Amino acid sequence: MDILIAYSGDAAEATRTLIDSYGLSGRIGDKDTAIVLKPNFVTPSDAESGATTHIGIIETLVQYLQENGFTDITVAEGSWVGASTAEAFSSLGLGRLARNYGIRLIDLKRDRFRRVSYGGFDMEVSETILSAGYLINLPVLKGHCQTRMTCCMKNLKGCLSDRSKREFHNRGLSKPIAALNAIVKPDLNIVDSICGDLDFEEGGNPVRTDRMFLGEDAVLMDAFSAGLMGFAPEEIGYLAAAAAYGIGSLDLSQVHLKELSKPCASSARPTGMAARLARYTAPDMACSACYASLIHALKRMEDNGTIGRLGSRKVACGQGYRGKSPEIGCGACCRGAGISVKGCPPTASDILAMLESL
Ligand code: SF4
Asked: So what CATH class is 2-259?
């Protein structure tokens, strides 16, 4: 499966690059196809907090679809239990967008539901989602305090009634999420990985990554995403459950990654709790994606209890290290380091393996 990736901190620009290259308009079919966009508005938090889908992604998609003659466009989401989707729509600018472009907004908490089941899990899924002619999933890649990460597969939980969302938690999340993905299969996933949160889905500790990626298979997309955050796919419970159900593959050798642009240097640094990990780093003109991979690898070491192996050493990262010889470095720019890992940018998994071998 192809995964297209674009490096940019501008959500609108990255979206346009991805969908132009993918040839989205030629993939959808009839101009009157019911197109549903499913973002992540888990709470009314600003996208820069690392919790929600950037509005520029949705606006760019709507502009593109209308330029190409598509007329039936809906943005549909249900926030988490206890949060108001209407408030998220209002505070994140969806009302303005709907008025300006004449598109439909649906609060999935108030939708009609159909009771469906898979693998022994009953659930109430939105009719709008089940009847979509072309479903575009717009998740945020970020950490999660229970499932460790959330991206394409878990984003579909917003398509459930609040009652089913509660039942999912009672039943351990992983298997129900996999079962939901056997029932709802997006036609396309466009991942907002501009600044996802380090470890909480409600945001507050964003890690600047400045990238977005696109692909069709939600399971394989999440297996790929796990590596970006420093996890083996099997470590994520809902991915392991999906593989056990036979609804997708975790075999990353099936991924054909197409880079549409190159990472570029950024001075942005992690904030909030993520900032404490920066003391193990020595960035010099580091690209966001490279530095974010390092921060995620350090977070995994902190979680695993192995971060003490670093002692007082710092990991070099960035274009400023070209031609230099730091002790430990990550990415192609640090190939002169005593110990280094390849990649431009390297994944968090590869950095983690290198650091844990110290
Ligand atoms: S290896 Fe160098 S150029 Fe490549 S992403 Fe990292 S810092 Fe940027």
From this structure: alpha beta
Atom of ligand 1 nearest to the CA of 265: 8
* Ligand 1 proximity of 287 Cβ (cutoff 6 Å): yes
Strand 148-150 to 142-144 pairing:
antiparallel
Ligand 1: which of 211, 287, 293 to mutate, judged by most atoms within 8 Å of the beta carbon? 287
Maximum distance among all alpha carbons in the chain? 61
Note the pLDDT tens digit of each residue in 136-192.
Answer: 999 999 999 899 999 999 999 999 999 999 999 999 999 999 999 999 999 999 999
Q: Which residue's CA is minimally distant from atom 2 of ligand 1?
A: 333
* Confidence label for 200 from pLDDT (cuts 50, 70 and 90): confident
Token pair of 230, please? 């420093």
The domain segmentation of the chain, as residue ranges, is 2-259, 275-356
- Ligand 1 centre to CA of 139 (Å) is 25
Tokens 């996999």 found at: 178
Kindly indicate the confidence band of residue 63, based on its pLDDT and cuts at 50, 70 and 90: very high
Q: What is the mean pLDDT of the chain?
A: 95
* Predicted model pTM: 0.95
Q: Tens of pLDDT along 201-252?
A: 888 899 999 999 999 999 999 999 999 999 999 999 999 999 999 999 999 9
Q: Are 149 and 215 in contact (CB under 8 A)?
A: no
Is 263's C-beta closer than 6 angstroms to any atom of ligand 1? yes
